[in-house]
Amino acid sequence: MSAQGPLLSVAGIEVMYSRLALVLRGLTLSVPRGGIVALLGANGAGKTTTMKAIANLLRSERGEVTKGAIHYDGARIDGLDPSDLARRGLSLVMEGRHAFPTLSVEDNLKVGAYSRSDGAVAESLERVYSTFPRLKERRHQPAGLLSGGEQQMCVIGRALMARPRMILLDEPSMGLAPLLVEEIFSIMQQLNAEAGVTFLLAEQNAAVALRYATYGYLVEGGRVVREGPARALAADPEIRASYLGLDASAEADGASLAARRRPPLRGRDGPACDDRARRGAGQRTAAAAVGGAADGDPGGRPRSARAVAGAGGADLPAALPRHLARCGRGLQRRRRPVPAYVLDLPGAGAARRVPAVH
Q1: Exposure letters 60-97 (e unless 16+ CB within 10 A, then b)
Q2: Burial of 204 (0-12, 13-18, 19+ CB in 10 A)
Q3: What's the rounded Cα separation, in Å, for the pair 118 and 138?
Q4: How far apart are CA 251 and CA 249, in angstroms?
Q5: Kind and range of the H or E element at 318?
Q6: What are 218's strand-pairing partners?
Q7: d(CA 326, CA 57)
Q8: Tens of pLDDT along 144-159?
Q9: CB burial class (10 A; 0-12, 13-18, 19+) of residue 210?
Q10: What is the pLDDT of residue 336?
Q11: Cβ(23)–Cβ(174) under 8 Å?
């Protein structure tokens, strides 16, 4: 952290919606000046609510911060209007992009400068165009006709038009192709390094977020359950298994993973087919016998049990009649029709009847 203290500090906040649903439960985090901090977690963990609490946008959804405090640049801000936060240099890029679809790209960008009165809007506009050259090519095109990646660039550019010191970036990778995700994150890193913009990044794609962030917080159930440098979090076995899709034990020993895989079927007459394929065919045929006409019998009659036995019944388990009888009783309890037929499978003993419901 900087000697001047963090640029953003969230201290033990609780957020409720409609005074009924408690979403954040004592969440605490801080963002250093000039840093990139990742807020990780699954869908519904509370990441977007955290962003809206910082930007003071909860009231439109009947939400409120009921406990804790939020400080930006040393001043408490949880009671300020969003327009006041924009003038102080704090901008939010919301989840889902939210460009104005009927306005041109250039008009969308100019909206971001509504709170400025310094007369340097044209200079900022050219700077945005140099960062996102594709936006300059489409400056007169309605934003609603842009691709998803171009719309994401547009809303980030709109936030930059306010000349922010900090940007809250909520789910920037949502709905984008992997190459576009990398491009967006690379631009974020460039803005951080060249313009000194601080970023708080809420993201489900933990693999990408931890690659570009310097510090991270893991949120579950409205609480921070883990935090640390991005590299340490990326190396944590639990996070790798739960959020990065990597099994540390299998990754360390690829041979053990291959050994756990079942050998493929090699053909109709191959040795790998002899037992498994015949057993599977018999079980599927026996299960189909329950369905009658629904499974292909045009007369609506259950298939013959002897026909079932002839299609691989020798490999059917001895407990199959009992299993089918249980299925019949379950259908009876739900007052569903149960086909009446006699099982006469090899090795199954005496014939058994599944009771019928008429």
Answers
A1: eeebebeebebbbbeeebbebebeebbebbbbbbbbeb
A2: middle
A3: 26
A4: 5
A5: none
A6: 40, 226
A7: 56
A8: 999 988 999 999 999 9
A9: buried
A10: 58
A11: no
